[in-house]
């Protein structure tokens, strides 16, 4: 998709489709007024005939309005004037994007960012780009007879009234494009099946990203490297699989070497059958998405490098399969993590924490300013928060505030959960320093408490994305979350505001 900024009289600009807003109670936006005037009232008459009420995100396509250069006009409801917030506007953008994606128009001119007054142009442009990208995303590379739209949307113009708005829109477009590209990459990796997207495949994709980007260097630690480092927890999960595990480490250098980096750690479990504690058959296919945390880290590093942010960022993605096998972890096995702490594996299906704990210990060497890990860690988090918010766990108030704000701004929300010491007892083991599970209650919190034992050397937060990383039902597929949240956090950390 190509996005650009355009100025001029909306009624006279040539385009396949002009998109603008109408408020409730037939209050026309400035663009709508111009179009109504040029069409000598035809717009208002057609709106009345269609009973268009301007409710938020309602759409109406109009053809052959007289006196208008655009071939078609897409009207989108903005709700009551002055009441639309950024969240509502994202619904408007998404609705417009969905119509444009299937309307057989190759290009469109959008004045919605001008019509929704009172919101910052830069953030609106960013949201428009990410919403249109979401609406036009398809994953059909594995269909032998893909049916792409006959006329795909290829060019989107944003209408700007003046010079300073045009500049703000341009900056927002660049940010939106970076977030969208990172999100798309995370979706693609997530949607690929386990037989294609193996740990080696993830590593190769990360390496590919590093090529041609001078500030991004990618290294991949192999099984023997991990053995040398004493990563007994990570390696114990991989023992049940014929695919060798990989520890992907991506270094983005956008600041002087002495600047402490932000470290993003992502669970890259390319298929989670549960191991010897085998999962039930129903919906097990969804466990191909168990690498979505890792994919989000890779996607965020892609966005970070596209934005050329003045930060140092390290992405660490431990990647493995979790399968039953004669050599797999058995319930009751005790393994020694890189930190020296021993773990009794009471359930081989609680494998995410086993690969993440060694990745967290490994992260200590970067002397991080902060570490955020992202993982499809627990089904319990889906029970607690459903599919709207990711679970946020941290003892660091400042970090909590930053991540909550970033998610709110990016339309990729998280909700803070407790991480109190009170829950730590649930991990007591009779035979090792800790067990890898902690009973039936508070599963998401106990999972986070396990990770906390490996994250004492730096400010740390954990995002459980089990409920947000993919969608089920008719519209199934990876969402790319939390790439928008993480990229927004990096933008904030880089001091980029707006
Ligand atoms: N990858 C799963 C978590 C998961 C399950 C995410 C369902 C999304 C949907 C994780 O490895 C897992 O199996 N967790 C167990 C932990 C339990 C054994 C303590 C779970 O949630 O059941
Ligand atoms: Mn599991
Ligand atoms: Zn898992």
Can you walk through the features of this model?
With 498 residues, the protein is of the alpha/beta class. 36% of the residues lie in helices and 20% in strands. The protein is built from 15 helices and 20 strands. Strands 7, 8, 9, 10, 11, 14, 15, 16 and 18 form a 9-stranded mixed β-sheet that branches. A 6-stranded mixed β-sheet has the order 1-6-5-2-4-3, with helices on both faces. A 3-stranded mixed β-sheet has the order 12-13-17, covered by helices on one side. Helix 10 runs parallel beside helix 15 and helix 11 runs parallel beside helix 14. The radius of gyration is 24 Å and the shape is elongated. Ligand BES binds next to helix 12.
User: Unreliable stretches, pLDDT < 50, 5 or more residues?
Assistant: none
Multimeric status of the protein? single chain
- The whole-number mean of residue pLDDT values reads 97
Q: List each distinct ligand once.
A: ligand BES, manganese (II) ion, zinc ion
Q: What's the helix count?
A: 15
- How big is the Rg? 24 Å
Terminal Cα span: 23 Å
Q: How many β strands by DSSP?
A: 20
Q: What summary fits the major beta sheet? A: 9 strands, mixed
| Principal-axes shape call | elongated
Q: Report the helical percentage.
A: 25-40%
The secondary structure category is: alpha/beta
Question: Strand-residue fraction?
Answer: 15-25%
């Amino acid at each position: 998709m190509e996005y650009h900024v355009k100025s001029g009289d909306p009624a006279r600009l040539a385009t396949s489709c002009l998109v603008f807003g109408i408020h409730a109670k037939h209050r026309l936006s400035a663009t709508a007024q111009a179009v109504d005037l040029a069409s000598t009232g035809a717009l208002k008459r057609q709106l009345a005939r269609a009973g268009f009420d301007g409710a938020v995100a309602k759409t109406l396509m109009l053809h052959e309005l007289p006196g208008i250069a655009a071939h078609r006009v897409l009207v989108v409801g903005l709700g009551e004037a002055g009441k639309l917030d950024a969240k509502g506007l994202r619904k408007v953008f998404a609705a417009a994007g969905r119509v444009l994606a299937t309307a057989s128009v190759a290009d469109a001119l959008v004045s919605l960012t001008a019509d929704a007054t009172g919101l910052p142009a830069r953030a609106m442009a960013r949201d428009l780009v990410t919403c249109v990208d979401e609406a036009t995303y398809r994953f059909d590379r594995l269909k032998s007879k893909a049916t792409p739209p006959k006329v795909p949307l290829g060019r989107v113009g944003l209408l700007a009234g003046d010079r300073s708005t045009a500049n703000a829109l341009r900056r927002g477009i660049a940010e939106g494009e970076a977030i969208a590209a990172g999100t798309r990459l995370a979706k693609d990796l997530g949607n690929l099946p386990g037989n294609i997207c193996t740990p080696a495949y993830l590593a190769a994709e990360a390496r590919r990203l590093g090529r041609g980007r001078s500030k991004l260097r990618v290294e991949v630690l192999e099984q023997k490297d991990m053995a040398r480092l004493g990563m007994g927890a990570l390696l114990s999960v991989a023992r049940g699989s014929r695919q060798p595990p990989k520890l992907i480490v991506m270094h983005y250098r956008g600041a002087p070497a002495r600047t402490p980096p932000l470290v993003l750690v992502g669970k890259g479990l390319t298929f989670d059958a549960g191991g010897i504690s085998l999962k039930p058959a129903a919906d097990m296919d969804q466990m191909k998405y168990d690498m979505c945390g890792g994919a989000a880290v890779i996607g965020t590093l892609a966005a970070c490098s596209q934005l050329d942010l003045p930060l140092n960022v390290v992405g660490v993605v431990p990647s493995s399969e979790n399968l039953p096998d004669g050599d797999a972890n058995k319930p009751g096995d005790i393994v020694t993590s890189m930190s020296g702490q021993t773990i009794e594996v009471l359930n081989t299906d609680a494998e995410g924490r086993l690969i993440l704990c060694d990745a967290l210990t490994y992260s200590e060497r970067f002397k991080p300013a902060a570490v955020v890990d992202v993982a499809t860690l627990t089904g319990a988090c889906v029970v607690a928060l459903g599919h709207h918010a990711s679970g946020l766990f941290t003892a660091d108030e400042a970090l909590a505030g930053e991540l909550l704000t970033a998610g709110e701004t990016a339309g990729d929300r998280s909700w803070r959960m407790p991480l109190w010491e009170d829950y730590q007892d649930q991990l007591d083991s009779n035979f090792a320093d800790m067990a890898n599970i902690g009973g039936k209650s508070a599963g998401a919190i106990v999972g986070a408490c396990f990770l906390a034992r490996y994250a004492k050397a730096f400010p740390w937060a954990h995002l459980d994305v089990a409920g947000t990383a993919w969608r089920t039902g008719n519209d199934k597929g990876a969402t790319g979350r939390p790439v928008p949240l993480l990229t927004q956090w990096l933008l904030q950390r880089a001091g980029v505001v707006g």
